[in-house]
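Researcher: Please predict.
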Amino acid sequence: MARFLVTVVALIALPFSVAQAQFGGPSHEIRVVTVVEGLQNPWSMAWLPNGDMLVTERGGSIQTVRDGRLLQEPMANVPAVLASAQGGLFDIVLHPDYESNGWVYISFAKPNAEGNESATTVIRARIDDNALVDIEEIFEANAWSNSGGHFGGRIVFDDEGYMFIASGERQAPSTGDLTQHPAQLTDNHFGVIVRLYDDGSVPDDNPFVGTSGFAPEIWSYGHRNPQGLIFDAATGLLWETEHAPQGGDELNLIQPGLNYGWPVIGYGANYGSGTEIHASRYAEGMAQPAAFWVPSIAPSGLLMYHGDRFPNWDGDLFAGGLSADHSRLSRVSVSEGIVTGRQPLLMQQYRIRDARQGPDGYIYVAVDSRGTRETTPIIRLEPAD
């Protein structure tokens, strides 16, 4: 395994929404270890109880890493995906009671019969002899579009067994009457976080169950392209990161029934021209982000770290960044739902698609492929001290 040292330097934080500390407290010197190479657009990681690591590739494959090596064949019976632009195979998450029920949850861009539209969809399945079996479709977003982007696709379970799924607004134009944008029209799944039981049914205590004009699956709405989603069992808080356009990427503390404002409010601008998108920065009845990034980092996977490998980072969030010019792993310190500091790590070294805490307590990062780089690795961060 390839190894090199990175000295972590606390750089000045980029602007955020309220007066907060610029640094995230004591840091660590870290060692970067290459875990496995040869992946194509890795999107997500999950670990089986036997130590195998499952890796989704956006093109439609699930690879298994065993003892530091890819198995010769990818997993069989993976559903067909629309692997175009940002679409493809997305998240993979084990059920909290996986050892008793064997369920694995997978999200992807599902094509329609003609192959010209797609929607974010979630299945659950079991694994038998390197193949998916007992496949059940449990969620299909009411957000069909011929756009190739902004699918969301993250899945997370809370400590009560409820499942949250991020669904993007599919690049619907932010023009005209912004209050009539699909992310503000609540009878659909454009730009929402949904909350479901593990079989896809709707809990009776979702905030909009029985409310006219609201899809009952909605937990929160007014999102753009949610790419990070994590539940912290230690605090009971649900955190999300999402792409803004040019500047204004957000870290949000997700609470039931709230409208997070896209595109009516925000801190971004139109691509290229830099002209204004939003009606304002604030609006009554719309939630402010816990933090935002200007310029954009293009946030991806989100991790809440709890462990003793990096004791100075226990309870910190780690947000991946895909931006070509501002990529990083952003360490974000939080206390009682408030951001107290930020520190950029691995600045412009990797285009980071996902960040997960492994069962060994180390931080694993999926490096995204781009341009002439045909394959990329999974890397691991270890303390060098």
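Model: Helices lie at 98-101.
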